Amino acid sequence: MKRLLIAPLLILSLLATGCGTTEINKSSIPLGFGVDYKNGQVIFTTQLANPTSPEKGAGGGPQFIVQSATGATIAEAARRISLSNSQYPLWSQSSLLLWGEDLAKSDMSLFMDFVSRNRFVRKNIPVVVTHNASVEEILNTIPLATPYTATAIAGMLQAQQTQLGIYTPITIIQVLDRFATPGIEPVIPMITIKKSPQGNQLLLQDMAVFRDRKMVGMLNEKESRGYRFMSPKMIQGGLFIIPNPMDSGKWVTLEMSRSQAKIKPQIQGRQIKMIIEINAEGNFYEQGGSGDLFTLNVFKQLEQLANQEIKNQISACITRAQSLDSDIFGWGKMIHESDPKLWEELGPNWSQVFPGIETEITVKYEIRRSYLRDKSFVFRE
Questions:
Q1: Are residues 191 and 129 in the same domain?
Q2: Residue 229: φ, ψ to 5°
Q3: How many Å apart are CA 311 and CA 242, to the nearest integer?
Q4: Cα 189-195-200 angle, rounded to 5 deg
Q5: What one-character DSSP code corresponds to residue 142?
Q6: Domain containing 246: what range?
Q7: Under a CB-based contact definition with an 8 Å cutoff, are residues 317 and 224 in contact?
Q8: Are residues 188 and 175 in contact, defined by beta-carbon separation less than 8 angstroms?
Q9: Among 70, 74, 224, 371, which residue has the fewest nearby CB atoms (within 10 Å)?
Q10: Residue 18 lies in a domain
Q11: Contact 67/48 with Cβ under 8 angstroms?
């Protein structure tokens, strides 16, 4: 019997005496946290779960508490939360990291050392940048159909991947890697507040583009779609629209099942051209307008229109990135890997070289199925 009691007693003693542990009943659960920068001061904000007893119920109010504190550094600001909260935050439970737009546009060195060094912050959680709103305003916005803002934003990032296929989520470790690796820059989804008579709502909108240590611009929805198509990993989910070839002014919705990008540099001396090949397939999802589109000839037209639309989205993204002198695609990294000597020459001035790189884009999209119907809907006459 004594042997069976050893393990529980050891655990209790560790919780009571420290060794990097914290008693659960003295802890709070941070759902997400973020950092703003204003007037030379760091503003650290966290959203904490608001424990509610079953007897009292939720009471119709928010099921979270938002707390902020300021300091000269992030660590100081974060620890000043303890001046108004007796519970020790378990930062490893956070599911989201937010960067304020002002911080992103100033100098990310204010934050990167803290997040890379801190052993309590999980590096696989998603990152978003706020737009036209502070971190505190975002975390104080009550989300739809879910109790917590931080988990709602993380869920929105994943849901739109399969439903729309616009914004590419990125985690802390991926951002750290891009800031530390020559020849590739971070691009991060943005979150804003949509105001309406029914109340404020969270909205994913645009992506923040970085160069060196700070945010230098944004990708709009079309450009963000193009960026997603150029992912080196296979992407799944999403949809896009193309013109109805048989009914002017009407649209056809196509679904994306999967897409794979192959990108390689073509190097001749100092001349560089990026060869971009997209192989994708999907489904006929919705027809707007009249006309029977289910013929072999029309399907070929639809696939050609799809190829052109995807190419346009990719071209728009490349044009935008080159105008910002930001290699968000990692082309410099590819050149470094394929021709180290050339990169040694071009690397120090890559932000000036990148805007002049030419591209050759080839897209092949194939329609695989049409779900429940193999004919266009026909109204009675």
A1: yes
A2: -65, -25
A3: 12
A4: 85
A5: P
A6: 232-381
A7: yes
A8: yes
A9: 371
A10: no
A11: yes
- 3-class SS at 165? coil
307 and 273 fall within a common domain = yes
Give the separation between CA 227 and CA 240, rounded to whole angstroms. Answer: 14
Using CA atoms, how far apart are residues 80 and 349, in angstroms rounded to an integer? Answer: 42
| Crossing angle of helices 109-117 and 172-180, rounded to 10° | 120
On whether the CB atoms of residues 97 and 118 are closer than 8 A, the answer is no
**C-alpha to C-alpha distance for 105 and 131, rounded to whole angstroms:** 11
Cβ(82)–Cβ(138) under 8 Å? no
Q: Give the pair of three-digit tokens for residue 33.
A: 């946290």
State whether 274 and 339 are in the same domain: yes
Of the candidates 209, 211, 107, the residue with the CA atom closest to the CA atom of residue 168? 209
Phi, psi angle pair for 66, to nearest 5°: -110, 125
Cβ–Cβ under 8 Å, residues 137 and 193: yes
Distance between CA atoms of residues 108 and 198, nearest Å = 36
Smallest Cα–Cα separation from 182: which of 358, 355, 335?
335
Same-domain status, 38 and 91: yes
Per-residue pLDDT of the chain (381 residues), as tens digits, is 434 444 443 333 333 334 455 555 667 888 999 999 988 899 999 999 886 644 444 455 678 999 999 999 988 998 998 888 877 788 888 999 999 999 999 988 878 888 888 888 899 999 999 999 999 999 999 998 889 999 999 999 999 999 999 999 999 999 999 999 999 999 999 999 998 887 889 999 999 999 999 999 999 999 999 999 998 889 999 999 999 998 888 999 999 999 999 999 999 888 899 999 999 999 998 888 877 888 888 889 999 999 999 999 999 999 999 999 999 999 999 999 999 999 999 999 999 999 999 999 999 999 988 875 666 676 555
Do 315 and 253 fall into the same domain? yes
Distance CA 112, CA 230 (A): 26
From 167, 196, 219, give the residue that closes a domain: 219
Residue 45 near residue 20, CB atoms below 8 Å: no
Measured between alpha carbons, how far is 339 from 334 in angstroms, rounded to an integer? Answer: 8
